[in-house]
Amino acid sequence: MSGKRRGAPLSTRTPRVLRGAVIGSLAAAALGAAAGGALAQAPGAPSRPDPQRETEAAVADYNAGNLRAALVQFHDAAACGNRLAAFDYAMMLINGEGVTANVPEGLRWLRRAADAGMTQAQYVYGRMLDDGEFVARDPAAAHDWFLKAAQQGHVQAELALANQFLDERGTPRDNRQAFAWYKRAADAGEPVSQYVTASFYERGGDGVVRNLDIARAYYAAAAAQGDDAAALKYRELTAAQKAGPGGASAPKATGPSY
């Protein structure tokens, strides 16, 4: 595919992801998906805090604005192996929330959470590497982290990975791989990916069979989430189909832009 890709809504600066990440991850943590779990204790040993409960309490304090209490509890839970707590503690250190900012220590905890397999940490660390924020810019290393998170179903990592394949950033250009990851994110409901996936189907090529009905469906899905450009594309394709081959409303041959 050629042309300029539509800008993805990834401009939010990386350090300010904590509040949404905490809220979004809490349900998973409660099911044991994001938490590392409490360490085993020997019989008769002094009772240690449950890292799961410490993390949940920290989330409550953070959302209530009790940042210092949240910081302490995130640290304690992270020290006991809770990946979500390690990530949130890292973000608070980097942001300087409840404490004077300490970026090197925050990066250490962020990397610890990423190495433990937490997808949000992998994605955020990848974003830092891709943007050169707080760390030396390294798109190839970012690609590796995006891939780790995307393979576990992290939707924003799927979008970031697709963008890299399309832009030839950190990896050789591969439009087929780009399409595969855009479609995967689109099917998970990500609106920018829905628009770009529709564009692939509208134009065809790169292993994608041109199909205007599928294109309209993806444009409609993005439009339903407030994408005005997608709504316009849906109306244009619908009008073109009604006009028939060669009609005045037929789509222009220039193809979509990304």
TrEMBL record:
Signal peptide, first to last residue: 1-40
SUPFAM superfamilies: HCP-like
Pfam families membership: Sel1
SMART domains given in the database record: SEL1
Record keywords: Signal
PANTHER family reported in the protein's UniProt record: ERAD-ASSOCIATED E3 UBIQUITIN-PROTEIN LIGASE COMPONENT HRD3, SEL-1-LIKE PROTEIN
Name of the protein in its database record: Sel1 repeat family protein
Species, as recorded: Burkholderia mallei (strain ATCC 23344)
